[in-house]
Prior knowledge:
By secondary structure, the chain is mainly alpha-helical. The chain contains 20 helices and five strands. It has helices spanning 3-11, 23-53, 57-84, 87-111, 116-144, 150-179, 181-201, 216-228, 231-247, 249-252, 254-261, 266-285, 287-293, 296-316, 320-347, 354-382, 385-401, 450-467, 493-502, 505-517; strands at residues 437-444, 470-476, 483-490, 525-530, 546-547. The chain has a five-stranded antiparallel beta sheet with strand order 2-3-1-4-5. Helix 9 packs antiparallel against helix 15 (320-347) and helix 9 (231-247) runs parallel beside helix 16. The two termini are 43 Å apart. Mean pLDDT is 81; it is low at 1-14 and 540-550. It comes from Mesorhizobium dulcispinae. Keywords: Cell membrane, Membrane, Transmembrane, Transmembrane helix, Transport. It holds the Pfam family MFS_3.
Amino acid sequence: MxxxxxxxxxxxxxxxxxxxxxPTFRAIWLAAQLSGLGWLFQTVAVSWLMATISTSDxxxxxxxxxxxxxxxxxxxxxxxxxxxxxxxxxxxxxxCVIALSSIMLTALVALGFYNPWMILAFSCLxxxxxxxxxxxxxxxxxxxxxxxxxxxAVTLISVGYNAMRSIGPALGGVVVASFGPLTAFAVATLxxxxxxxxxxxxxxxxxxxxxxxxxxxxAIHDGARFTxxxxxxxxxxxxGFLFGLTSISILALLPLVARDQLGGGPIAYGVLMAGFGAGxxxxxxxxxxxxxxxxxxxxxxxxCIACAACCLALAFTPSLVVAAIALTLGGAGWVVTxxxxxxxxxxxxxxxxxxxxxxxYSALSSGGVAVGSxxxxxxxxxxxxxxxxxxxxxxxxLVAATxxxxxxxxxxxxxxxxxxxxxxALALDLKSRSxxxxxxxxxxxxxxxxxxxxxxxxxxxxxxSRAGARHWNLQRDLQxxxxxxxxxRTPTWMDYLRLNHRxxxxxxxxxxxxxxxxxxxxxxxxxxxIERPTGAPRRREQSGSFFFRR
Length: 550
């Protein structure tokens, strides 16, 4: 690992427990651990209940799919909502849905009125609530804390959940074995209500935009475009999808390992889950030290190999102790990978779009988990449990090699907050929906600077396009070769204002670099015009064109 990479890692590494000094983060984080414990109680109860009332291996594996598939379907909508409305309110609504599903499941089990498909249906409803809570909670981290504390906070979220994972499944197994699934469902419901109480008691808000709220369809489109034009985010999403697809065999098939291969009951299943959580907890606590020693790419590769080794051990061992030890390795690889990918997306996203990028990442990662759960369940049912685990181990080794094509860049701290923008004075009275707007920026570039200028304009195109520019192009004057014109469009005047409000300090650095290449006495001139189709009715806001100097 290079000296520069270590410096970048250190710059974004805060002491692991520093974010807990913030009272709002501390309260929500603690409530999240309690509700996470309840979620694990419910997961153990649902998984074991399904294993006892259904003889189908696919139905058992579909328990994981039922909670992750809604995240895949709904997350992009949830992310757009989290970026346009109060993230705290979105979290509250999501937890209300989770609590409602738990209350209804508890009531039905108490009445003895349930079957495998009903269990999957209410698990799916809980997954719908999780689809809204997760993007809003992770995006809120940057609202509650400083940028440099985000990696430590994301690590704490993962460490906290996996700390609960280390004890929750074992406790859940004891509760299910001693008192039955009904008690586990009731306890889970109480923990969800505790989370709602914490959200109601503590308040936080995002950075308010001076512009009107975006329509949902526009917000989704802009988030998808930003993601598609961000190489770092695309790499993290692709790796997350592939890792979820291959590694979920560990958790999806674990009830079958406990029941069929080890001949155990719910307590044995809880012990295995505790081993997985213990490994995740240890990896989370040592997260900062690991990242100071190894690059994120190297850690992700090693994590995939660790999960592959876990799958192979589970495929062949008849010992509960050996299986639990193997699962500590798998748990460590699990938390290292997901934490690293999550932080990579967070640090690559400006605040105006972070909810959407996180939701797209979450949706595709959860899609990989949902599809993988089904695939490995089908393989286990039609062939054998051992073959399913062996195949997933081989697939994980292939995922480890994808770093050659889709590397995860080393974290670095950059100012991703949007800067203010002064609306230019216009000669026409434009409405927010007036448009399309044509933007032309004129440069004077000496021949000696042309090659550097073209390199920087390639980056300029990416920056402007992901902020909202359409039909971007660069033109060179044939009669005055030193004269260059950058041209792009926005659908409306409001879209033009949004584009400029979205540009961050890091994006503005490119403006300063281009200014150094510009040879004119005056800075590059920006012209604004509004398109008017020939023969269209004359309207006041479309009566001509205009420009301003910048």
